[in-house]
Amino acid sequence: ATVDHCILGLQILNQLVDELNIATTGRTLTQHRKTSVSFRDLCLFKVFQLGLTTLKQLQTRQITCSSQRQEVILGGQALGLTVRCLNFDFIGTNPDESTEDVGTIQAPSNWRPVLQDPATIELLLDFYANTEPPRSNKAMEAVILICSVRRSLFPSDKEREAFLGRIIGGIRELLKNQTGLQHQDNYHQFCRLLGRLKANYQLSELVKTEGYLEWLELAARFTTQSIRNWQYSTNSIHYLLALWGRLVAAVPYVRPDTGAKGHVQALENHVLSVVECYIESMLGSVETVLRSDGALEDPLEDDGSLMEQMDRLPTISRFQYSSVAKLIVAKFDPLMDKYREIMQHLMTTSTDSAPPNIAQQAAILEGQLTWLTYISGAIIGGHSWSSSRIGNGEETLDASLSKRVLQLAQGMDFRLSNSNGVGKSDPKLETAMLYYFQNFRRVYMFMWEQTSTGSSAISTMGSMKLESVPSTKQKVYQNMFEHMGLGDHTVVANLIVTKIGKNLKFWPDEHEIVAKTLVLLTDMAGGYSSSKLLLTLDTVKYLAGHHTADEFPFLNVPSNARHRTTFHAILVRLLLSPNGTDKLGISFEEFMRPILDTMAQLGALDSTQLRSEAARMPLIGVFRDLRGVCMSMHNRRTFSLLFDLLEPQHFPLMSRVADLWHDQPDVIISLLRFLGEFCHNKANRVNFDQSSPNGILLFRVISDAVCAYGRRALASPTPTTGDIYKLKYKGMSLALSVLNSALGGNYVCFGVFSLYNDPALDNALDVSLKMALSIPLEQVIAYPKLSKSVFGFIELMFRNHMKATL
Q1: Euclidean distance between the first and the last CA atom of the chain, given in angstroms as a whole number
Q2: Do the Cβ atoms of 183 and 133 come closer than 8 Å?
Q3: Which of 286, 321, 202, 211 is nearest to 250 (CA)?
Q4: Distance between CA atoms of 480 and 478, rounded to whole angstroms?
Q5: DSSP assignment of 586-620, as one string?
Q6: CB count, 10 Å around CB of 266?
């Protein structure tokens, strides 16, 4: 056979391993696993050995290739086969292929001699050192997989330690010589190898390895070098931070006298140098990016990589927290002083209209403060109330960082208010501030109710009074706010909520800021303690009393239509909470007045005016708002409040809108989504009195709207261009879903309609059945939401309305 035949055979094997590893459509999971397990037991090991043998023959020149290109292809195919065999789903765990994180490789026991053989690792490392990408990075990927084999594969600790020693030795040599690390792909895979090393081996094993301290020093040097050259390694830094985080997290479980002498002190020194280098480099990156005129990507704009780094930073920062906090404060204070000076010059003007040198200086300062805010938020988010280190004074360091971030937030708000929204900071700084608030809320806000009542709680039992003693957590919490020096938890909560209000008022066009601000408000309103505190704040009272587009322009921006729903859902949740109306000083009727007034104005329009472009945004807005209100109705009492306000004056508007706007997806979808929420009987909230006709009236509204839309939709031709689902099938799907909720809600006695010759039920069933049958079956199957609505409707028809069906 020729070399070309060998390449063809390897290609076939690569495809075969892929096909038998990944479940395909048309075969059940049981069938797939049966075939896969049989292949694993009978053939996979031989295929793996074949890949390694081919690599060995290439290395020793036993295979003579006619050209360099042929050698590259053969080596690539052999390496690909080796990696696929190691990546095989040995035990049917269906690993997630969307991530690069390698889990434990559950290699069978009969693979042990090959995997444990020193020649295997040496072969792959030698192939890595003597080839170019993509072969070299494939070889490194194979090394990563071999490093990840299950611990139980080795019969004794001695053999596992010898295996680990060979890996550590190989990594040391690569680090010393920087072999192949000038290539981006090789570098990325090598970072993955370092990040994976501690995940599969315990620190107690690593410290016993020969040359551990040298390896630690080389790894620290490589990490700092990588961080300094951040523009080439942004997507790889988090693997290195993960390595140090895992090493640090394992320190409490290793005796100081285990393994190499002084390994804990060495780790402390190296971790501190890594964190210092990270902070310095990220602050320096701001000016580098600005002066590159767009040639370099800003790390702050790569949200995925940034969050990966922030997730790993708390563990290593808190290992030497005192030194790290001092470093951050030493960076923060001078930057804050410079920023205040520049803001005094700018004050009521925008940064863009300032002289170029001032604008550039402000951009650099805001970028650096953005990094410090992210880092401070990440570190504070890493505080653990269950940690054994609680009460050792770390809360004072949290307070020191929080004080500076909150002072920065106050300064930003002051400028924003005084300039009536003109003097805005960099949107990235606003996003970083929201990230900090989110972490601060998660760590400290759950204690607010306990600390406000716990320390002064007195329980009376007969004539005896027992004073409760504050717990350690409460003491830590109170100590943190005392050291912060900005006031108690109420003051800080008001500061955060005020910032939320300012964001909603002055950043209407920044979709990301509005979205993250509402997520923060949702999370605060969702917590028991924090929601009770929110009801006492003036800013929340203002939000509840002024939830209109005049006060919050973001409500008028078309791209924020979805956020209107969230905004009103939050406010109604607070309003309808226990004592909510009393604490906010507004009744539900008063809260709903702006929405009802808009509906009354729209309802008074004639058909031409209601179909005009001027009515589009008010219609979308009012139905989005109503849906948000309805989402927060969780019981019979609250649902009845909304129903009584809408019936009978405002219900006719809905069928008119369905008839006039049937061909405009943005309007009709807003209406149908509201109706779907309104008639959905979650938590048995749609539950009227026995003598009440409200259930029938509600169904009539649904029937009128669905029939008005359905008749017009059926009469309209199917669009031949554009997104057919959005233009036609999405509305039909929602209409069927609305009717499904009404038919299956158990709040209507459907026999009443035929008894009194009311055509509402028959009309709704007739139009809906025609809609369902008008959609081609292949389209129904192609769109999951559509198929759920259609088949759900057909099921209800056959179960409860067989007569109408026949």
Answers
A1: 70
A2: yes
A3: 202
A4: 5
A5: --HHHHHHHHHHHHHHHHTS-HHHHTSGGGHHHHH
A6: 17
Q: pLDDT band at 355, cuts 50/70/90?
A: confident
CA pair distance 679, 93, nearest whole angstrom: 41
DSSP-assigned beta bridge partners for residue 458 = 467
| Calpha distance 198→196 (Å, rounded) | 6
Own/partner contacts of 582-589, CB < 8 Å, gap of 24 or more, are 583/535, 583/536, 584/535, 584/540, 584/541, 584/544, 584/545, 585/541, 585/545, 586/541, 586/544, 586/545, 588/641, 589/641, 589/645
Number of H helices, E strands in the chain: 41, 2
User: Helix, strand or coil for residue 464?
Assistant: strand
| Backbone phi, psi, residue 467, to 5° | -90, 130
The span from the CA of 626 to the CA of 643, in Å, is 11
Phi, psi of 473 (to 5 degrees): -60, -40
CB 431 within 8 A of CB 373: no
Residue 58 near residue 74 (C-beta atoms within 8 A): yes
Question: Rounded to an integer, what distance in angstroms lies between the CA atom of residue 682 and that of residue 745?
Answer: 9
Contact 278, 270 (CB under 8 A): no
Supply the pLDDT for residue 462: 39
Q: Is the pLDDT of residue 346 over 70?
A: yes
81-108 as b/e: b if 16+ CB within 10 A: bbbbbbbbbbeeeeeeeeeeebeebbbe
Question: What percentage of residues in the chain have a pLDDT greater than 90?
Answer: 62
**pLDDT at position 467 over 70:** no
Cα separation of 699 and 680, whole Å? 11
Residue range 505-556, pLDDT digits in tens? 999 999 999 999 999 999 988 877 788 889 989 899 999 999 999 999 999 8
Angstrom distance (rounded) from CA 165 to CA 158? 10
Report whether 700 contacts 748 (CB < 8 A): no
Mean pLDDT over the full length of the chain: 89
* Mean pLDDT (whole number) for 690-716: 94
The per-residue pLDDT for 457 is 39
Whether pTM exceeds 0.70: yes
